[in-house]
Design goal:
Structural class: alpha/beta
Order of helices and strands: EHEHEEEHEEEHEHEEEHEHEHEHEHEHEE
Shape: globular
Largest sheet: 7 strands, mixed
Helix content: 25-40%
Length: 394
């Protein structure tokens, strides 16, 4: 313990840490010259001004979130056994939740591993180290993964914008293995995933339960899957018995991947791909009088930061209006936001306003979020980023 630096909090600034909050902000820390000299990502002990011991944290003197807690135990040893135990605990939960090894294996603070994301596609792992601490710990994390799941390949998708706040570069790299191609089994469909070339970590596990809900509504219906990426919603709807599915996205690569999945799973005869900017295409389809039994609108984040919130609200209102106009009477609209800066209540109000401007009556069938492999730390409710609404429109 003697070689672990001690970080002390300013007088009167330890209340949040004592209450169990996993973050300590820079304005709560006594930033002495010694503290500022600690290499970003280092493990430290945190103490209150009164000498109370507040656990073991990873520390970055250059970040707004200066310390992120690894353990409440001030005597905890952060070695290979620690990383293996934490990931093993996360693995045990996912094994109970899901019958196949396709899930978010680690979801940052809620799994006691702040800033770390691990997505598992069988024997393929996608890793995001979003903090200096997790960047420094990556070799130990890889050793733990080798012991626990023996992955064929591990891909680093270290491209999140928050890395710049930690003084880290954006990097995509193959850390283990030679082949990063993988598959996800979901809703009776085997999807190809591309952690090296696809969006984020290659697949959006957070929408798993929402995709199943939409697929259940889609039997016998025509379906529009806007912002479809690789077709997670639309292809599961086709597998569930949708009469016809239209996949809409601007990415040629994503649509090609989706249609390849459709062919491999015997769904191509009921699936078509349309390339274009989704917002423009929705407007055009409305002018042409097109209608669908189910419309899915699952866009990328419209608000990357707080300053983007007003523009994002306008975009969600416009999206809701255009998407609602394409729903056949008695049909269903699913719309989602992954912009964690947009509060859930404001998102719901905005979407409902957009539906009203489309002159449609609606009833809410479900207000949902991410699946259980994306747990939320109880002290970080803002990390519940995904908001989803399912409506029936008359």
């Amino acid at each position: 313990m003697s070689d672990i630096p001690i970080i002390r909090l300013l007088p009167g600034r330890d209340r949040r840490a004592k209450s169990g909050h996993p973050w300590i902000f820079s304005n709560e820390v006594a930033m002495t010259p010694a503290a500022r000299a600690i290499p970003p990502g280092s493990v430290v002990r945190v103490e209150g001004d009164d000498g109370s011991r507040l656990g073991i944290h990873q520390f970055n003197p250059h970040s707004l979130i200066a310390a992120r807690r690894l353990s409440r135990d001030p005597a905890a040893v952060i070695d290979d056994a620690f990383w293996q135990a934490r990931i093993a605990d996360a693995l045990a939960l996912r094994t109970r939740l899901f019958p196949t090894p396709h899930y978010r294996l680690v979801h940052a603070e809620a799994d006691g591993l702040p800033g770390l994301i691990l997505d598992r596609y069988g024997d393929l792992i996608a890793l995001q180290a979003n903090t200096a601490g997790m960047e420094m710990a990556t070799p130990a994390i890889l050793r733990a993964l080798d012991t626990l799941v023996a992955p064929r390949a591990v891909v680093a998708r270290n491209e999140a914008g928050v890395r710049s706040l930690e003084g880290l570069p954006e990097v995509t790299a193959l850390l283990r293995g030679t082949d990063a191609a993988g598959t996800v089994e979901e809703g009776g469909v085997s999807f190809s995933v591309d952690p090296l070339g696809g969006q984020k970590t290659g697949w959006f596990f957070d929408q798993r339960e929402n995709r199943a809900r939409v697929a259940n509504l889609a039997r016998g219906e025509t379906v529009l899957d806007a912002f479809c990426h690789t077709g997670g919603f639309g292809l599961q709807a086709a597998a569930a018995g949708a009469a016809r599915v239209t996949l809409l996205d601007r990415s040629e690569h994503a649509l090609a991947t989706a249609m390849g999945t459709a062919r491999r799973n015997g769904l191509a005869d009921r699936v078509e791909a349309v390339r274009g900017e989704a917002m423009e295409a929705l407007e055009r389809m409305g002018r042409e009088g097109m209608r669908f039994g189910v419309v899915v609108a699952d866009p990328p984040a419209f608000a990357k930061s707080r300053k983007d919130i007003p523009a994002a609200i306008r975009a969600y209102a416009q999206l809701a209006r255009r998407a609602a106009g394409l729903v056949a009477p008695g049909g269903f609209l699913f719309i989602a936001s992954c912009s964690h800066h947009v509060p859930s209540g404001e998102f719901a109000d905005t979407v409902i306003g957009g539906i009203q401007r489309a002159r449609r009556d609606a009833r809410i069938l479900a207000m949902t979020g991410a699946g259980p492999d994306h747990p939320v730390h109880p002290m970080l409710p803002e990390s519940a980023y995904l908001k989803a609404l399912t409506f029936q429109l008359s």
